[in-house]
């Protein structure tokens, strides 16, 4: 059924405008700015922009401190969003 579009490489999402995986965003930031960003930072910036995210089932117990995305990484992630036409 999925001969040309495999789920392993998200091939089924390649033609959808404004759709990039967390891995693609992180790789773009790494190649353009030589910054390593976490999925947490990408999710935080998605939330700021109002981009839809899937439900997180691993919410924790609210006892630990959650790091905030630094401004230079936020700027790089925003530019990656623009590169992928997400904003």
What keywords describe this structure?
globular, 87 residues, 3 helices
Describe this structure in words.
The protein is an all-alpha fold and 87 residues long. It has helices spanning 22-33, 39-49, 71-83.
Based on CA atoms alone, the radius of gyration comes out at 14 Å
Distance between the termini: 32 Å
Averaging pLDDT over every residue, what do you get?
Answer: 82
- 3D shape: globular
Q: Outline the biggest β-sheet.
A: none
Q: What order do the helices and strands follow?
A: HHH
Work out the helicity level: 40-55%
The tally of helices reads 3
Number of DSSP E strands: 0
Question: What are the segments in which pLDDT stays under 50 over at least 5 consecutive residues?
Answer: 1-8
Counting helices, strands and paired strands, the structural category is: mainly alpha
Concise account of the structure shown:
By secondary structure, this protein is mainly alpha-helical.
Helix and strand layout, with pairings?
Elements: H1 22-33, H2 39-49, H3 71-83
Helix pairs in contact: 1-3
